[in-house]
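This entry is passed on directly below:
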Amino acid sequence: MLQSTPDERQAIIDYMNGQAPDLTVEFLQKVYAENVLSHQHVVWDVHTNVDRWWVITNPTNLYSQEQFPNMDLAVTFHVGLCLRIPRGERTKLSELPVEPLAGCFRHISEALEALAGAQEVSDFQAVGVRCREALLAFSSAAQIVVPWVGDVAAEPKQADFKAWVDHICSVCLAGQAHEHRRHLFKTLLDEAWRFSNWLTHAKASTWYDAEAATTTVEHGLGLSASLVIRHLRGVPEACPACGSNRLSPQRGFHSSVPDLEWERPTCDKCGWLGEPVPILDDPEAYTSDEEDRPPPEGECIIPTVPLRELRKPSGNSGR
């Protein structure tokens, strides 16, 4: 059996109550965890007053142990179901917790849409243009939230993508211990920028070149945006209380500031809670007085759980 925190257990109980309000959870335990394609799926054995269920996370779904008496079979089915989710069912951009860097993801979404219908060289060049715009949107937003702190005379021009990438990586991954990480992020973004520029002007490109550009840019932006967001929100490399790497974001509101959403890091292992920071949608907001707003006193986070379309035990679908 695997260790679990009270919050983890309560989340599973709440999920079961939402999906099967006519059942009562009498016992549950975390029995297995497996990483598949950078996603961790955790399996819970849940006993109710009527029957037993496997609840598997990320995304969370439940499977009757009468239909899936073998846990491995349930995990295999769950992972396969996740991999087969059609593009139309992917999380919407508005639901991604990527503030204040949402702009670059809008551009990469446009690049992916353009790729789907690309047939001629001019179409591939248009994909390259959108990839460039996505990278520049990241650079423009990141240089505002991770401002230049050195000699003003040496500050790069706003459109100097490579120089700003170097600065952002040096700030977010400072120190000798991050040498190899800095090199990876800089190289990934630099090469994505270089290839997108080439595709924009290439006269003999193919669909596979356009696919390579969108895939590389999407991957680079995903990693880099996560890096900048963790830096903004003060997420430590490991839990300062127990040293665990199992950190998760927790969002919510406080009654004293009802119009402002907050987020803090939490430890899934020991329950440690970090300091809450305000969630600001617009990069420009980080240059205003909002960034100096002190966190509210007392219990400031009321967790909100994103709902997905799931099948209830009764056989009905709901959110």
